[in-house]
Amino acid sequence: MSVARANSIIPSSIIIVGGGASGVVLAAHLLKSVNPDLRVTLIEKRPHFGQGIAYSTLLSAHVLNVSAAGMSAYADDPLNFWRWLQGQGLISQEQTPQTPFYAPRSVYARYLKELLDELEAREKETGRLRLIREESLSISPTSSGVEVTLANGTSVVAHLAVLATGHDEQPGAGQGHAIRMGTEADTALDPDASVLVLGTGLSMVDAFLSLEQRGHRGEIVAVSRRGLLPSPHRKGAPIKLDVADIPLGTQLSYFVGWFRDLIRENQKAGIDWRDVVDGLRPFNQKIWQNWPSSAKRRFVEHTKAWWDIHRHRLAPEVHARVTEAVKSGRIRPVAGRVVGIAADDGFAVEIQSRHTQALETLQVARIYDCTGIARDISTTSNSVVRSLVDRGLARPDPLRLGLDVTAKCEIIAGDGTASAKILAVGPLTRGTFFEIDAIPDIRVQSARLSKQLLG
Description:
Layout: E1 4-5, E2 13-17, H1 21-30, E3 39-44, H2 80-87, H3 105-122, E4 129-133, E5 136-141, E6 146-150, E7 155-158, E8 160-163, E9 195-198, H4 202-213, E10 220-224, H5 252-268, H6 273-280, H7 284-290, H8 293-311, H9 316-328, E11 331-343, E12 347-353, E13 359-364, E14 366-369, H10 383-390, E15 410-412, E16 417-424, H11 430-433, H12 439-454
Parallel strand pairs: 1-16, 2-3, 2-8, 3-4, 8-16, 9-10, 9-14, 10-11
Antiparallel strand pairs: 5-6, 6-7, 11-12, 12-13, 15-16
Helix pairs in contact: 1-3, 1-12
């Protein structure tokens, strides 16, 4: 599909809408520029920058799903977070990055806060960084750039704006009576009550750990189409692959067959499947972008659940807790789908088994939405994104995983025009980059975008 492109501009003022992890990482990369005229404005509606949904938790059991050696905010300084942890006394000076360490997510939030504090102090006299704690409502192109309207009635102008709003905080459309863990609706609960969790991935694990911390004792029924639980990390080393080794642009069935054969060959040589999956990681975005649209759709509908449990893994100690909870009956994974919900002193939920088609009715006190990716970005609860789509300034990508953007992160409008003034990074760009939820991918994207914008 060809995309018309508006005239490019070289900006000296940039607004980042969203001051969570993606926004802070992008700001840090932009401010590596020595341009004295650069102005970066970071806008965040939450009280604290650098947290978002993922890193706002205070629960020590909520640890990073990537070892600390892979969580630096800087693409060109991969051990920045590791050294920070050593400086904080959280890991010893003798410990090497080859030894996995899964830090609490609250610690990572502190790392991002201190990183931003240092940038703010450094740029205090230059005025190159401005932080605004307010909700953004809309972005409008102007003759010379963009104007971002804020909830307090004021607005901010710049040459361009970058959306870095991350994950949607509200349940996805069609989730009925479900709520998100940790929101205002997540009130006190009878510790012996049964609860239903929609989803069996990493977000479900977070919900289980949160409930356990609260002293919850009731059964947790976790339902997804396949009922698959995430796998654990193990110490290893990714295999070496070259782009020439990978069949790009094929149909999904051929690619899956090739990948299964690759795993079998390496397992015969004593290599763990995790090292094969991790060896493919540097090429995941290229693989996705070279697939025909039919392969992308089939992957999302049929293969993604299998990929997720192998690709997005748990810290070993967390996996052990989940495994024990399943064995003891605290967590009951169910492969199936919800076919009906009746609200009456809790919820009567009817679930149809994937394998037997049998129906089961559960009586639960609460339903948590842990389904992860929203399937239709046009139904998002984010005011800025919804406003852009409603006005035709942006459109969902063909699979409706996020906003439609070019390979240069430019937002594509409803008429197919790519904007040089409104761009996006992070999870909003899933449709183009697919694997763009984790810091190791976001920092690379931020580094490339910074170089693209500032040269």
